[in-house]
């Protein structure tokens, strides 16, 4: 349908129109092509969005470039008219928060085929008019419940072909305007975390196709909505990680490339910190050791590990962090810094070791810190003997320590500042006390017993070399009869005499070596034929169906809130052996989980789409129509004179149009309709459980079925005609499968060489000639099979089904192996011929869940049959256009001619209380010029004698209109 003309032919017209507002638009960027308000910067190898775009840009094409990031640069605040933004096929890995602020009119945002790994709510801040969001073919793996929180106007959301395993509960709850959601092509993990999604899919029809599970293995390729709820009730270890954003550690918050994990009581570093992290905040936790895996964060520039429990820095712990500029390790329990702890930190500027328990620092520890400007060593008990003299000299060289670090020992250096104490005062007189040496050498704690010798090992650990006759970590155990821990199940070994021992068993075990678990099921209390399972010092009862309790002593009330399977307000009835659900109005199914399709017998008129509701439906009217059932036609009287034939037109599913100079009218059909009066359905959209039913196929002397279809699905019934014998045509793993049985066992099968699920239209032809069947796709090489045997013709009394089957027919077809998969065809069908006769798909015996028009698969050209008479057609989206009228012309279709003309009259000329001596012939420009102005194109100057009240006279020059016309300048 056309819309009111608002756009001009080129940017010059927009500049002229708003010249009175002192607005000067920018020129078209040098690397782009501009036509009207469309700016095409596609395929220009751009790495950033241009900053010098014209203000009146309504469509910006940036597809097929090398853009890696959408920055919050304020560019969209300069594009208040932007309606469509195409960023397809770039390398976008991040969108900065609030990057789109200012684009309040943006309706279509295309981000397909990029590298987005996560989506944050603030990425789309400011998009208050967004209707279409395409995120297909990115790398998203998780959808949080606030990911799309602010996108309340979005109607179409595509998440097709990502890496989504998990979706948080209510992930789509705030998308209140959502009509279509595509989740296909994602490796869904169908565990307990997706139970909500399965229920949501079963209760609505907004989702394209059937999203399928990829894990666990038992559910692979099973449609999520077909998985029984009982299989999604219990969480397994594989479900871990599905309750949170996999790109942000649990309990942490992530903003851009900064990870904030402060005050989370962490005892170790999270395992899923992204390699692209630049800032890592782990302060105020309980982390005791830094793992070597931290070296994977090669992009990190700042790490805060203050207020933890870290006691030692191993060698090479930060060796790969060449970009690290700030490292905060203050207020830990650091006692030992090793000689290569800070190796590789060539970019480090700030190092804080304040508030630890460090006494000794090996010489050369800071040798790689080439960029250091500040080091904090205060509140450490430094031992300032000759081994620390190097540190004093190093600090004094560049004054990188502010004079806070003080010596604690020996007594002669106590409380002296490392920065100001003379270097020759750092001398070795006595050996440090063992408790000082033990901070880096655990052997100074003297752990080894019974005369064993101690060897220090890395990470401030030790090993004891035991003398003969002893063993254990500290050589504390003699080698006797209990050597090797002969007692099982944590029994305690006691030496009795030379070579003998006894085992003292823990509760629940018995035997010489505590090897036997006592049978606690002896005299158990399990009730109602429950099974007793023995445990250690106890048992448990496995209940028979219908009972619960510790001992299975309580019968289950299956209609209780906890156990009732009845959904959607249904009433549960317990029959002491089974139960039934009495559904509320609008629902059906064994547990009332299925919303009754109220659109099956809908009464929507004029090509309106039916939207199913709860115990009712609503009609989505084509442009111009209104009313509860879209029964009210467009108000054509505003556009046409009352004598127009369109005043009483009979266009059934289209708009009436009267060409100029013709007394009759033509009908411009809505999508999905054709015919002189748009009375015939030309294409149908099939969804889940859709089908058409036609009379039985006449197969003598021959029969054929030809149709054109488009789909992106791998499976689906195309045509089926059968009872005992059959013809079945289906999509199976993307190819056409034909199964043919005229009654000659065994059945004959063949598959097409071509694959069809590419979204394009394909013509499929089936020819039946007696026991022969021939398949042709797109007019290519035909394939034939023969169901050899005595019977000649296929004779079936049942109806012919197109696009799907009723449930009971599908069950029989599957049972007899007529079909491999009985799911309905999902896509579009048009141009259906049966026995060479074109079929009006709208006049089938029965239509179930089908609707006219195939917007998803059509390649619309809204200007192909436009109605613009005196103007240019400009597409505004996939289906709509508007007319940019020539100068003077107006109306939605630029069919209202200008009425601007000169009107003459005679009157006195007035001027500041004076008037002309006599009436003067004058003229005015009156009439319509559409969006332009009716004004004088030609004038002539003349002189008029003016007379004032006191007798004064003078001559006034005036411009007299000679010719009028339409002008852009008003």
TrEMBL record:
Which SMART domains does the record cross-reference, listed alphabetically? Answer: CT, EGF, EGF_CA, LamG, LRR_TYP, LRRCT, LRRNT
**What's a BP term from Gene Ontology annotated to this protein?**
neurogenesis
CC annotations in GO: extracellular region
Q: Which CDD domains match?
A: EGF_CA, LamG
Entry keywords, A to Z: Developmental protein, Disulfide bond, EGF-like domain, Glycoprotein, Leucine-rich repeat, Neurogenesis, Repeat, Secreted, Signal
The record's disulfide annotation reads: 466-475, 505-514, 543-552, 583-592, 621-630, 646-656, 669-678, 863-873, 885-894
Q: Name one GO molecular function term.
A: calcium ion binding
Q: Which Pfam families match?
A: EGF (PF00008), Laminin_G_1 (PF00054), LRR_8 (PF13855), LRRNT (PF01462)
Enumerate the spans annotated as EGF-like domain: 441-476, 478-515, 517-553, 555-593, 595-631, 642-679, 859-895
Location(s), subcellular: Secreted
Which residues span the membrane? none
Tell me the ranges covered by the CTCK domain, including all copies. 900-970
Laminin G domain: which residues?
681-854
* Record bears the keyword Membrane: no
* Primary location: secreted
Keyword flag Amino-acid biosynthesis = no
Would you tell me the protein name for this molecule?
Putative membrane glycoprotein lig-1
Please report the organism this UniProt entry assigns to the protein: Ixodes scapularis (Black-legged tick)
């Amino acid at each position: 349908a056309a819309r009111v003309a608002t756009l001009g032919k080129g940017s010059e017209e927009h500049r002229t129109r708003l010249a009175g507002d002192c607005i000067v638009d920018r020129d078209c960027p040098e690397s782009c092509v501009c036509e009207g308000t469309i700016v095409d910067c596609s395929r220009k190898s751009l790495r950033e969005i241009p900053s010098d775009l014209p203000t009146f840009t309504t469509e910006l094409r940036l597809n097929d470039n090398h853009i890696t990031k959408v920055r919050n640069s304020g560019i969209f605040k300069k594009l208040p008219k932007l309606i469509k933004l195409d960023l397809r096929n770039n390398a976008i890995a991040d969108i900065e928060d609030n990057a789109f602020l200012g684009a309040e009119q943006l309706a279509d945002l295309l981000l397909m085929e990029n590298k987005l790994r996560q989506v944050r709510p603030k990425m789309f801040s400011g998009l208050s008019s967004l209707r279409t969001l395409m995120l297909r073919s990115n790398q998203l793996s998780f959808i949080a419940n606030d990911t799309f929180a602010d996108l309340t106007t979005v109607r179409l959301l595509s998440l097709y072909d990502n890496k989504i395993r998990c979706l948080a509960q209510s992930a789509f709850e705030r998308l209140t305007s959502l009509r279509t959601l595509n989740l296909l092509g994602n490796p869904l993990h169908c565990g307990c975390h997706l139970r909500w999604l399965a229920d949501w899919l079963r209760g609505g029809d907004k989702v394209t196709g059937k999203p399928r599970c990829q894990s666990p293995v038992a559910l692979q390729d099973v449609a999520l909505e077909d998985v029984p709820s009982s299989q999604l009730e219990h969480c397994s270890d594989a479900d871990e990680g599905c309750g949170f954003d996999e790109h942000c550690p649990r309990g942490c918050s992530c903003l851009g490339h900064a990870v904030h994990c402060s005050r989370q009581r962490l005892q170790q570093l999270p395992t899923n910190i992204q390699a692209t992290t630049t800032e890592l905040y782990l302060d105020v936790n309980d982390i005791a050791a830094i793992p070597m895996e931290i070296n994977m964060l090669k992009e990190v520039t700042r790490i805060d590990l203050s207020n933890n429990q870290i006691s030692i820095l191993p060698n090479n712990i930060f060796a790969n962090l060449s970009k690290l500029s700030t490292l905060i390790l203050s207020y830990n329990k650091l006692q030992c810094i090793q000689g290569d702890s800070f190796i590789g930190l060539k970019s480090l500027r700030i190092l804080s070791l304040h508030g630890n328990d460090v006494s000794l620092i090996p010489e050369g520890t800071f040798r790689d810190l080439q960029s250091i400007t500040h080091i904090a060593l205060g509140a450490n008990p430094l031992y300032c003997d000759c081994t620390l003299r190097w540190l004093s000299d190093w600090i004094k060289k560049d004054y990188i320590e502010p004079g806070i670090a003080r010596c604690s020992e020996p007594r002669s250096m106590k409380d002296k500042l490392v920065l100001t104490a003379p270097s020759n005062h750092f001398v070795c007189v006595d050996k440090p006390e063992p408790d000082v040496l033990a901070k880096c050498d655990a052997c100074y704690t003297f752990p080894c017993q019974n005369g064993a010798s101690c060897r220090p090992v890395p990470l401030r650990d030790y090993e004891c070399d035991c003398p003969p006759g002893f063993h254990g970590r500290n050589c504390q155990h003699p080698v006797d009869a209990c050597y090797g821990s002969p007692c099982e199940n944590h029994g305690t070994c006691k030496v009795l005499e030379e070579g003998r021992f006894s085992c003292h068993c823990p509760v629940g075990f018995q035997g010489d070596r505590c090897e036997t678990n006592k049978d606690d099921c002896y005299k158990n209390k399990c009730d109602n034929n429950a099974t007793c399972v023995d445990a250690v010092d106890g048992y448990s009862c496995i209940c028979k169906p219908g009972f619960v309790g510790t001992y299975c002593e309580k019968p289950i009330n299956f209609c209780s809130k906890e156990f009732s399977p009845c959904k959607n307000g249904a009433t549960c009835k317990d029959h002491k052996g089974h139960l039934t659900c009495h559904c509320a109005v609008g629902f059906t199914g064994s547990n009332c989980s299925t919303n009754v399709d109220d659109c099956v017998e809908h009464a929507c008129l004029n090509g309106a789409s039916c939207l199913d509701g709860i115990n009712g439906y609503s009609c989505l009217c084509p442009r111009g129509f209104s009313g509860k059932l879209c029964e009210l036609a467009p108000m054509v009287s505003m556009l046409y004179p009352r004598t127009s034939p369109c005043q009483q037109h009979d266009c059934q599913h289209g708009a009436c149009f009267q060409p100029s100079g013709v007394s009759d009218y033509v009908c411009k059909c809505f999508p999905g309709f054709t015919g002189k009066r748009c009375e015939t359905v030309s294409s149908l959209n099939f969804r889940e459980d859709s089908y058409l039913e036609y009379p039985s196929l006449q197969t003598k002397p021959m029969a054929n079925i030809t149709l054109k279809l488009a789909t992106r699905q791998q499976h689906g019934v195309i045509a089926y005609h059968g009872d005992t014998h059959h013809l079945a045509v289906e999509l199976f793993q993307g190819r056409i499968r034909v199964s043919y049985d005229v009654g000659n066992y065994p059945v004959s099968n063949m598959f097409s060489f071509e694959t069809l699920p590419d979204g394009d239209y394909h013509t499929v032809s089936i020819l039946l000639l007696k026991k022969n069947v021939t398949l042709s796709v797109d007019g290519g090489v035909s394939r034939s099979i023969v169901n050899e045997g005595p019977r000649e013709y296929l004779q079936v009394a049942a109806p012919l089904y197109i696009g799907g089957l009723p449930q009971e027919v599908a069950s029989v077809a599957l049972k007899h192996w007529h079909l491999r998969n009985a799911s309905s065809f999902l896509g579009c069908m048009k141009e259906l011929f049966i026995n060479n006769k074109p079929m009006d798909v709208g006049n089938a015996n029965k239509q179930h869940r089908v609707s006219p028009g195939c917007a998803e698969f059509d390649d619309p050209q809204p200007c192909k049959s436009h109605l613009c008479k005196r103007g240019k057609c400009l597409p505004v989206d996939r289906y709509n256009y508007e007319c940019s009228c020539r100068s003077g012309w107006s109306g939605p279709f630029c069919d209202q001619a200008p009425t601007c003309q000169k009107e003459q009259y005679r009157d006195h000329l007035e001027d500041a209380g004076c008037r002309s001596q006599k009436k003067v012939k004058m003229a005015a420009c009156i009439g319509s010029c559409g969006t332009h102005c009716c004004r004088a194109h030609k004038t002539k100057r003349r002189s008029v004698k003016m007379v004032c009240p006191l007798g004064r006279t003078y001559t006034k020059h005036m411009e007299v209109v000679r010719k009028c016309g339409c002008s852009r300048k008003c």
